[in-house]
Amino acid sequence: MNIPLSITKNIHDWLFEVMSAPVATVVEKVLIAVAFLGFFALAGLLLVYMERRIAAFFQLRLGPNRVGPQGIFQTIADALKLVSKELTGTVKADQFLYKLAPYFLIVASLMALSVLPFSKELHAFDINIGVFFLIAISSIGVIGILIGGWSSNNKYALIGAMRSGLQTVSYELSVGLSILTIVVLAGSLQISEIIEAQRNGWFIIQGHIPAVIAFMIFMIAGTAETNRAPFDLVEAESELGAGFHTEYSGMNFAYFFLAEFINMFIIAAIGTILFFGGYLSPFGITESIPLLGVFWFMIKVLGLVFLMMWFRWTFPRLRVDQLLTLEWKYLLPINLFNIVLMAIIVWLGLTINF
Amino acid sequence: MGYFSDIYNGIKTLLTGMSVTGKYFINARKEIITQEFPNNRDTLKMFDRFRGEVVMPHDENNEHRCTGCQKCELACPNGSIEIIWDRVIDEETGKKIKAIDKHIYHLSMCTMCGLCIEACPTDAIKWSQNFSNSAYDRTVLTKVLNKPGSKIMPGVKDKE
Lengths: 354, 160
Known about the structure:
- The complex is a heterodimer.
- Chain A is mostly helical.
- Chain A is built from 14 helices and no strands.
- Chain A has helices spanning about 5-20, 20-60, 75-85, 95-115, 130-140, 140-150, 155-185, 190-195, 205, 210-225, 235-240, 250-275, 295-310, 320-350.
- In chain A, α2 (about 20-60) packs across α12 (about 250-275) and α3 (about 75-85) crosses α12 (about 250-275).
- In chain B, a hairpin with a 6-residue loop joins β3 and β4.
- Chain B contains four helices and seven strands.
- Chain B is α+β, with helices and mostly antiparallel strands.
């Protein structure tokens, strides 16, 4: 039995029926953009709520549970509060860059979201260099942080931004190399092909030892790239106030905040695509219903997001020198060795296939 | 070989830490320590050492243990306790002894230091565990600790 349920194709055909081709193209693009903006806001709010509840359970507290059932509307109320607040700023700030900085982060996060496949057909932008595109885009976000810290005319913000630049430049390398390890196994940079290659077993099983090592390095470096604890030197509360967004208030602050959580979602989604088969169901149990891919994708992504929250509430923050030692003395050499190991395994055909 | 043992130890300690917090997360439902205060006002019991206010326990015959020695009044650093006392004739010995008329306690001035309770030689006053004692009228906070018509418990005497 095969139930197609091709929603995107039906909407596409209907749009081109009722309008002329150029108008329909523009309308389609706008619809996709609105859908992604809506997803950005909703997923961000949901992740903030999830983080607060999970943090509470780790600390034997209850967390927000008053606004709506189990407090699910708490973050929406918080967002409404932030919208209503005044946008303050320092007098000597570089006004143009100061106002521009949050949008850099948002645009980078949204561009990275666009290549994520939520199911086989809910895939907005399937380019043949998808993984390369993701690596490239995810480093643009740090420009927003650097600009925000620089233009605030605040020493704490500047130190936070510089730390963020240092950290992202270092850990970008590990993220890229651990992704490359999987690209060696998949033999393609296109995201849909990487996922289809996992029909015979997810890459973390196919690639066994080097894939597990690559996954561990990816999770460590990914956590560092999203500037989350234990790598949150950027906004180390005890040292730098709020770090690079010290001078931001109201909605500008909320953009930074949401972008941080969406970046976490993106890192978890890349991990899901590369290691856990993306939208594929385990052992192909729901292969006849492609739309359930959304469900499996979200389950896996939220699992990895939970792992990152687990890191956050377990490990203490690293010092700057410890951060750099971890990257340059441990992760990078292991990673380079790991790529060679993976290449040998693929060459000799030692992968595990079902 | 220190390099590789460092990596091994690093991963091992990370997993140890994660297992500790993971256990807390799994058992979180059973051990949550948050009190949702205004909702559980009726059932909330404070712990034994909580200092709510000073009370004078009475037994079923409306008898207390206060001899009126005024040691609590002297011990109080800010005058929260006033004792109005009188001399009565002891029925056993026929001597005149002190007896309290009113043990007045100003909760509004009390800092909950507990010196009066430590000073009391006969354990007549102690801490109660009640809470949320604020009131709209200040006079409500001036309390008479001994109940009307109460007597001293037989056999409780000042230590000479």
